[in-house]
């Protein structure tokens, strides 16, 4: 039974990437690593900080908090330490994304997607999703981060200016080699980057020449900007780097940056241990309970936190753990037989991910070589590619999923319809877009978000449209960067502790998403048929080019849309409590002392970008907030 969700995944992989077996190179083994524990008997009774989840955010925060050599930190991780060439491999970006290193959760059938289900993919190993992601290094626009602070008033420290120092701290940017940069007219500006982190972002030693043509064709579209750098906080068409260390041409991620190279007795990581509960005493989080499975035996152990418990289990599991611990929507907890410690209606609500859509447009007379098809169709080229990779780790095999894309606002892609779409969103019954019985505070938060997003639809610096460029003369994956539908991630009331969280994307539950996506499809057609690219004889096969009517395009989307780009977020939103928020501006959970959330779940609204770089920046800021409190 090959599920439809898996074939969707395969489609993404086929369109965006061409995963190949990694070469059997003599990969250098990782350096000796800091203390990692597997048995609960090795765990001390208490630590200053107990971090749940050794993923992207968890390892970043743990590294920073323990850097003083004194504060004791334990990170408890469900997965293992995994050494695999699939994780290290940069080429294609997709080698590690299958089920091997991920949780195996299936979403509920999506009623607006013909009841299709989707594989919910998130990393289940040390490094978390940063170990399996496609390594695209992108951040949102300044509007995206100013929007976060706007829900708290006008002088929140959550803003573009407030986050920029943390973007710089999070990653070590290594510029491209000048010959490669010149071959395709790449631009970058190091003033938006830092060079102190041990998580690297760099550039392949090769680019497809066709990318320059694809980028230049956007000059034919009024209003498209070409920011000098992907980190400039501006929408437009630009180059962006890859989350890899250019020295060894391998993935650089939370494990290599914040675990492998550290040797501190005050920083421990415990693997194969699932946190089942946050321990609460008189409104204070005092520690966690975790479970280990050894053969048939199940062992539950408690570990105490002298200062704080820090939740970094990701946007699928952080809300699950809060709910299991009695922090969440009272009605749901009652149904599940869990005593409510804090009635916090927002936990598990406000769930967002980036929907992905597919088009089939090919330039029949595209003759630029080499291009990605030469890896399969031109023996001479592919032999060369293999030779330079094996000799020097250079050439096409040093490329990830791509380094160039368009990120455009609604007025740019839909000058005729953006105003009507924004007005339609404003005049909607916002409560009717959420599940029945949604708490009034959550509705108020959603209403505030929709008000903000409607006005952002009228500005060029909130990107809705994302098109990853291929260099092959064919269309790439399209992503809706600011979906309006909101889903839920809730415990299963009939088996709260035993079954995985119930993930409902509620894709297309807000029909304005369809209006936006229809404009995205139409714009992509215009990009191929009404710019200089039209000289190369474009042909559209998917959806068929005679399909232009909005209703037909919407039908095509219901058939083919993926509700996820593997960017789950928003389920423990940083919003005021009266707007359904779960954490405050210091990332502290409302109604509890000594408990913060620091991962992708705190994003109130997704940024218009792949999420990993933002998670790193949020975690860097979280570490500063926690240190500022520790007195
Ligand atoms: C296939 C894929 C492709 C992606 N591509 C890109 C990309 O190209 N660019 C980009 O910017 N972003 C990409 N992303 C998204 C990005 O990687 C994530 O947004 C980010 O890594 C999330 O970080 P996090 O800290 O919130 O969660 P994670 O990094 O997922 O960490 C959560 C950790 O908590 C652990 N955990 C969960 N529950 C428990 C528990 N109860 N007890 C103990 N441990 C627990 C998990 O095992 C995991 O290690 C991709 C993601 C995926 C999955
Ligand atoms: C989807 O499932 C629901 C509930 O089972 C059913 O009522 C509906 O008809 C289904 N829709 C489609 C398109 O199959
Ligand atoms: C924020 O600023 C805007 C315009 O600058 C103003 O209209 C609004 O009243 C301010 N809001 C708060 C809460 O200060
Ligand atoms: C790079 O830009 C220059 C100047 O705009 C232009 O003449 C040249 O053709 C471009 N090269 C490529 C490969 O696009
Ligand atoms: C790192 O950045 C600093 C400040 O921008 C700069 O002075 C320094 O030259 C950079 N170092 C390297 C190795 O690039
Ligand atoms: C780790 O640090 C200890 C104490 O400083 C030292 O003895 C040991 O050699 C170090 N290990 C590694 C692998 O660097
Ligand atoms: C584990 O359980 C299985 C099934 O109940 C049993 O056959 C097996 O002997 C058990 N193993 C151990 C080590 O107890
Ligand atoms: C819920 O609280 C009541 C009263 O304090 C207690 O008797 C009961 O055991 C608790 N139930 C659970 C599941 O913790
Ligand atoms: C494509 O190019 C070929 C050869 O240059 C030419 O004969 C043909 O007419 C072109 N096709 C289209 C559809 O433009
Ligand atoms: C083979 O490929 C190399 C590298 O792309 C190129 O320099 C060379 O001209 C090609 N030779 C033939 C016969 O195509
Ligand atoms: C590998 O790099 C060296 C040094 O730059 C160069 O001389 C050699 O030709 C390269 N090997 C291949 C197969 O390209």
Please render the helix and strand layout as text.
Layout: H1 4-16, E1 36-37, E2 46-52, H2 56-66, E3 73-76, H3 85-88, E4 105-106, E5 119-120, H4 142-150, H5 160-170, E6 172-173, H6 178-183, E7 200-201, H7 210-217, E8 236-239, E9 244-245, E10 250-251, H8 254-260, E11 267-270, E12 274-281, E13 284-294, E14 297-311, H9 314-324, E15 327-328, H10 330-335, E16 342-343, E17 356-357, E18 360-363, H11 374-377, H12 379-392, E19 404-409, H13 410-413, H14 418-426, H15 440-456, E20 463-468, E21 478-480, E22 488-490, E23 502-504, H16 512-529, E24 538-542, H17 550-560, E25 595-597, H18 612-629
Parallel strand pairs: 1-11, 2-3, 2-14, 3-11, 6-7, 14-25, 15-16
Antiparallel strand pairs: 4-5, 8-19, 9-10, 12-13, 13-14, 17-21, 18-24, 19-20, 20-21, 22-23
The structure holds flavin-adenine dinucleotide and 2-acetamido-2-deoxy-beta-D-glucopyranose (10 copies).
Describe this entry's structure for a reader.
The protein has 631 residues and is α/β, with parallel strands linked by helices. It has a single domain, classed as FAD/NAD(P)-binding domain (3-Layer(bba) Sandwich). It is 29% helix and 17% strand. The chain has 18 helices and 25 strands. The strands form eight sheets. Strands 1, 2, 3, 11, 12, 13, 14 and 25 form an eight-stranded mixed beta sheet that branches. The longest helix has 18 residues. It is globular. The termini are far apart. The N terminus is likely disordered. Bound molecules: flavin-adenine dinucleotide (FAD) and 2-acetamido-2-deoxy-beta-D-glucopyranose (10 copies). The site of one 2-acetamido-2-deoxy-beta-D-glucopyranose has 2 residues, from loops.
